[in-house]
Design brief:
Layout lengths: L1 H10 L3 H30 L4 H12 L4 H4 L1 H7 L2 E2 L4 E2 L2 H22 L2 H6 L1 H29 L9 H13 L3 H10 L6 H29 L3 H31 L9 H20 L4 H11 L4 H28 L9 H28 L4 H12 L2 H13 L5 H27 L5
């Protein structure tokens, strides 16, 4: 009887798992509908779809739906109080991570490495300014919050608090930059290339800082060495081994036909999955491995058809799941005092001044006109998707409290909301600044 029970549990779906699967399908339908409705409204005010999905995720979470219709929110996204986890997290979380990895794979394939190399000096200047200034401000706020608030859990040290908040402040919405630049027809332009190059450098540095924080939190700094060293070796392997092998294979099988074969498509997806798996294994996020593998893909028929096959389903179906997952963890209601809202205001102001202003000045010193410098600073100031990724990791590992998580979500939304309309206004005007 005992063996029969175990066999059923292992090889057959339990009633609980079937119920979760059914619940997940309902959640998926609700998420798609809400994201579409919010997206239609966002377009009217000049916001991209990614911003609509960020807002939709918060609306579906405890900050809005759970506040006004808690029974509905609990029925859609039930919370298992006995395990302190969401019942449907076992489906929603991995699906959201798959969507992120696929999306970053596409972003990597669209990235112009040749242009980035040619404009390395300008990208490095903008990136350095966009990292140093907000990191100093974020670390200072982390020091103040640690000593004067309860926004960090007791097990978080002062160094960890300062490093984590500094990394959170200097992150850039790299995927969103790619989408805005593509939608505005700036792909391959000088400004577009500099912004993408600077954004990639900023996010790589932020991930390295996060690796140090996580290693310190675990009490083992060898984890940081493993993450950073492994990440560098992975980049070398992707460009020095994987890219030449794929290019040689493409020439050998004469991959010049009009469309990509099914086998070649599967090969590209396999490379993506293995890259994402490896960087996740060494302590970096899977999105880092996905982006690098996308950037290493040989350009031509392979990248064109991989993008065409992956992008529509990823952007419309899988990526919104991540924003919803983040929204389920966002409890703006925890900011229930003027003091906490003042702290939130300080974070938002510090983020705008530290990132936007510093990048604008660096772009101007690199030779860009005033208006384009302001546009670069505006784009670099948006946090978007990458901010949500890094603070989700901080919340899951217990480095930050739910209140600080809510503050950082608000900062991500505000800075992202600012980007597109200000950028459009700057680029529409032909008058000199």
């Amino acid at each position: 009887m005992h063996l029969k029970h175990n066999s059923s549990a292992i090889f057959g779906p339990t009633m609980h798992n079937v119920e979760l699967a059914v619940q997940f399908l309902l959640q998926l339908a609700v998420i798609l509908i809400v994201c579409r409705i919010v997206g239609l409204l966002a377009v009217r005010v000049g916001q991209p779809q990614v911003v609509a999905e960020m807002i939709a995720g918060v609306l579906l979470g405890p900050s809005f739906l759970g506040l006004f219709w808690p029974e509905v929110q609990q029925a859609l996204f039930p919370w298992d109080s006995s395990q302190q986890t969401r019942d449907t997290q076992c489906y929603l979380f991995p699906a959201s991570q798959l969507g992120l990895s696929l999306y970053m794979f596409v972003v990597g394939m669209e990235f112009r490495i040749d242009m980035a190399r040619a404009q390395l000096k300008s990208s490095l200047a903008v990136s350095s300014a966009g990292m140093i200034a907000p990191f100093v401000i974020g670390a200072g706020l982390g020091w103040g919050f640690f000593h004067n608030t309860k926004l960090f859990p007791e097990k978080t040290s002062l160094t960890e608090a300062m490093l984590f908040l500094g990394a959170s402040m200097c992150i850039t919405a790299f995927p969103m930059l790619a989408r805005i630049i593509h939608s505005k027809g700036l792909t391959g332009t000088l400004m577009g290339t500099v912004v993408l190059g600077a954004g990639a450098m900023d996010d790589a540095t932020a991930w390295a800082l996060l690796a140090v924080v996580l290693a310190s939190f675990e009490g083992d700094y060898s984890l940081a060495a493993k993450s950073i060293g492994g990440g560098l070796l992975y980049v070398l392997f992707a460009f020095q081994v994987v890219r030449p092998l794929l290019a040689a294979w493409r020439r050998r099988v004469h991959l010049t036909e009009e469309s990509l074969s099914e086998g070649a498509f599967i090969l590209g997806l396999t490379a993506l999955v293995l890259g994402a798996w490896f960087t996740d294994l060494i302590g970096l996020h899977a999105v880092f491995g996905a982006f690098i593998m996308g950037a290493a893909m040989p350009r031509g028929t392979m990248t064109r058809d991989l993008i065409a096959g992956i992008q529509p389903l990823t952007v419309t179906l899988l990526l919104p799941l991540f924003f919803t997952y983040s929204g389920l963890n966002t409890k703006i209601g925890l900011l229930n005092t003027p003091f906490l809202w003042a702290m939130c205001g300080m974070v938002v102001l510090g983020a705008i001044v530290g990132k936007g202003l510093a990048c604008t000045i660096a772009a101007r010193l690199s030779g860009f006109p005033n208006r384009e410098s302001l546009a670069i600073g505006t784009l670099m100031n948006s946090r978007g998707l990458m901010e949500l990724i890094i603070i989700n990791i901080g919340l899951q590992r217990g480095i930050i409290s739910e209140s600080l998580f809510a503050i950082l979500v608000i900062m991500a939304i505000v800075t992202t909301l600012m980007a597109s309309p200000i950028f459009d206004r700057l680029m529409r005007s032909s008058d000199p600044v």
